Amino acid sequence: MNVYDGWTSFVAQCVGAISPDAAASWCRSRATLSAYSAASRRGPNSSWRPTSRSADTLSRNEHALIVARARDLVRNSAHVSGALERIANNVIYTGIKPQAAQLNADGDLDHTFNRKIEQHWKDWAEADEVGFEDKQRLIMNHLWQDGECLLRFYPDPDLMKHGLAPLGVELLECDYLDSSVDGPLAGGGYAMRGVEFNRKGHPVAYHLYSEHPGDMRRLLSRESIRVSAQWVRHIFRPVRSSQNRGISWMAPVVMEMRDFSEFQDSHRIVARLMAAFGFFVETPYAEMMNPLGGEMMNQAEGVEGYIPDYVEPGQIVTLPQGTKVHEAQFTHPGPTYEPYVKTSLRGSSTGFGMSYEAFSNDYSDASFASARSATLEERRGYRVQQNLMGRKAIMPTWKMFCRMLWLGGLEPLLTGPSVPASCQFPGWSWVDPVKDAKSAESLLNMGCTTRRKICAERGEDYDEVVEQLARENDDLKKRGLTETKSE
After folding, report:
1. Dihedral angle sign, alpha carbons of residues 17, 20, 24, 26
2. Whether 84 contacts 73, CB under 8 Å
3. Which superkingdom does the taxonomy of this entry point to (predicted)?
């Protein structure tokens, strides 16, 4: 019997002498408590008493500090900034593009109409005044650093002068939200740190500053304006159902990466100090050495030679009798340095959803099989982030774009404010092209996949591929050459 059970039995016997029911209740309560080791209050866990408050309450006071620390790491940590760049390269690459899916009267895809609408989108997104593809990379960076960001739409008639949809898009950091607007509001609604909700819990407005509150070059009135939710998209990924504001995706690794950066800085300083020493001289003539490191003192009487401060390449020096020279040798950083670095980077790479090899650019211990397995697992995580971008940013922008294009009357074929579409996400080239191509061919022959799906996995538009093949085959026929086989 352990101490816990012994104490329970002792107390139960004492209580049972007065009230057997109370003793039985005591034993049941103690048994329930001991059923979960995670609820242990003994030993080193005695001070571990986390709170069970809502997600918004927990992040209310710490949000600003977490965001500031995450941004500082992005500015100053090569591993963190490199990780975010790699994530954006995989999730966004050259941009997530909507793919129009309007059907004609026969129920087939209307390729002519869809191509025209997609061309309107391309012209609009690539315009310098919009730069929507660059904004996509910024959205990913803000989600990792800040945990949230805002897309604000507004009519921009100036774009119509260039034949573009009159839709302006502004990407705002979470700092623009007026967190002082918080609590119950008149009319039955309530606000959560700048986000206004109705009685059903749906966002109806956002209270935004006109300028960034952290811009110290301007004198701000600190007054916010109320912007209807129809013109704003709040992009964040909740991890709890009680969460209405985002939290930095880097929060679990902020302290670990900060400690690692300080560890690296300390070792860098030590290495610089050690590099400043070349030799140590042991001499019985202490009076010949200048403790302040300046000019040599007068040579001692009866002693030949001298001890120089520096040794030039090829220099021949005669040292005083009895002088010994020792080369500066250091064991720093020692045998524990590399294991610590790898352990720290492995833990942080997990928080970024990346393999250690990709996060640290260290492939010295990776085999082809392990690297391939890690790559496939990473891509699954990138797909999740791509779907989030599609739902939260791309499709809302597409719907607003089609509405403004229709209102502007720039496309005669567009008869309504909406066009059905899906997202074309960037894909990846095959890890092992020959084997992967044979695998895709086998799945296609077995009817387990389609050409459209294979193209989508590689980030290519199936319709464009088919059109290009048709044009190439026509060109080959004109030149009297054999056309490309489709099977």
Report:
1. negative
2. no
3. Bacteria
